[in-house]
Amino acid sequence: MNSDRPTDQYLKTLKLYYEEEVEGEAYFAKLSERLQDPDHKEKMHLMALVENYAAAAVEPLLQKYDLTPRCAEELRVSGHAQAQNSSIDWAQLISGMQKTFPGYIGDFERLEAMAPPADLPPLKVLTAHEIAAIDFLEKEANGDPDSGAPFLLWD
Predict the structure, then answer these.
(1) pTM (2 d.p.)
(2) Which CATH number is 8-151's, of 1.20.1260.10, 3.40.50.1110, 3.40.50.150, 3.75.10.10?
């Protein structure tokens, strides 16, 4: 962990990850709209809520360091476009996320390692939300009827 002075790399990464959470919320919200199965729609809606919660947790850090993220509307448009270009085949969607999401844990842990100690509580939310998403994906892939349970803490 660093001292109380944040590095430029930490600040740049913090802003990027915040933007990605806002973009992710829009992505999952649009996927929810595109899906036909009510259960799948609800699960992607929950993913959007969790992304929103994670962004809201770190937003005070952006304010603390006077960081200006890209415009929220621009991020939403980008997230929606990504969702429009994504498959809505449920098995493919879950499988794809299972392959990519575990890598985000390491990203968030590296951000925590760069952070001033006072910043750790909201950053831990980023890591925890990804752990919950991975838990959901694992349960969903295995046909667990209670796969949405990891999101109950975030609702």
Answers:
(1) 0.92
(2) 1.20.1260.10
Of the pLDDT bands very low, low, confident and very high (cuts 50, 70, 90), residue 154 is low
Q: Is the pLDDT at 152 greater than 90, yes or no?
A: no
Task: Give the residue among 10, 55, 46, 5 at the shortest CA–CA distance from 28.
Answer: 46
Task: Name the percent of the chain in helix, strand, coil, to the closest 5.
Answer: 75, 0, 25
Q: Domain-by-domain residue ranges, the chain?
A: 8-151
Decide: 36 and 97 in contact? Cβ < 8 Å: no
Q: Which two tokens stand for residue 84?
A: 């429009």
Cα–Cα distance measured from residue 8 to residue 103, given in angstroms and rounded to the nearest whole number: 23
